[in-house]
Amino acid sequence: MILELADIRIHPGQNAAFDEAIARGLRDVISKAKGFQGYKVNKGIESPERYILQIFWDTLEDHTVGFREGELFPQWRAIVGPFFASPPVVEHFDLVVKSA
Question: How much is the CA Rg of the chain, to the nearest whole Å?
């Protein structure tokens, strides 16, 4: 399993609309992608315009090739992209250890 971690910064004052948009984009678009396993979204307390999006994929290629180069990515960006104050910083991680 691969963890995609996206550090997202949105425009101030857009939290309610972004909360709805990211939930809709994950539910209606990303969840249809090959290799998608699940997601988590957290909003900053000290920095409420900062969000951490975690998406779990079967393989790195499911995200970087299948999703990013496929027809679903433009749909996703059309939903959430207008809220971005800057491009998200995206990195991928392998699981090392996990609690029970």
Answer: 13
Instruction: Give yes or no for residue 15 having a pLDDT over 90.
Output: yes
Measured between alpha carbons, how far is 77 from 83 in angstroms, rounded to an integer? Answer: 10
Kindly report the backbone phi and psi dihedral angles of residue 18, in degrees, each rounded to the nearest multiple of 5, phi listed first. -70, -40
Answer for the pair 12, 49: CB distance below 8 angstroms, yes or no: yes
Of the CA atoms within 13 Å of residue 38, those in its CB half-sphere come to 2
Tokens 């984009």 locate to 25
Coil, strand or helix at 31 = helix
The residue whose two tokens read 């995609």 is 4
Note the pTM of the prediction, 2 decimals: 0.94
Residue 43 burial (CB count, 10 A)? 16
> In the chain, where do the E strands start and end?
2-9, 36-43, 50-57, 89-94
